[in-house]
Amino acid sequence: MMAGIRRENTEPELAVRSALHAMGYRFRLHVRELPGTPDVVLPKHATVLRIQGCFWHRHEGCRLAYTPKTRQEFWSAKFAENTARDNLQKDALADLGWRVVDVWECEVRGNGNLPAVLKRRLEAT
Ligand SMILES: [Zn+2]
Questions:
Q1: How confident is the model at residue 5 (pLDDT cuts 50, 70, 90)?
Q2: CA of 103 to the centre of ligand 1 (A)
Q3: pTM across the whole model
Q4: 101 CA to middle of ligand 1, Å?
Q5: Ligand 1 centroid – CA 83 distance (Å)
């Protein structure tokens, strides 16, 4: 297993799951048959929902996606690795016919409108 970056059942993930559940979406969790073991899979919608941590997965333009002042080379290598892995996963899923929808940590945390965000994201084409 790689460096513990992909933790399961994180707080944003739990918030998304409970919102989806309340909205009546059916989903599967941590689907190991699919590339990268996606957190949340909505089979009926052929959609993989990734709940991405802004820092580790480099949410563009997000204040949580800062770069620490020390060990910058280490961080940029780490971030490049994560981003590359995310892109590979997305491509591999797309090749298998899955749509990949990303929801960012900053969109989830303390967001009373989470259901609206999810609905918009999931129903967009
Ligand atoms: Zn963010």
A1: low
A2: 9
A3: 0.87
A4: 14
A5: 14
Minimal CA–CA distance to 30: which of 45, 57, 48? 48
pLDDT tens digits along 41-91: 999 999 999 999 999 999 999 999 999 999 999 999 999 999 999 999 999
Indicate whether 4 pLDDT > 60: no
Q: What separation in Å is there between the alpha carbon of 105 and the centre of ligand 1?
A: 6
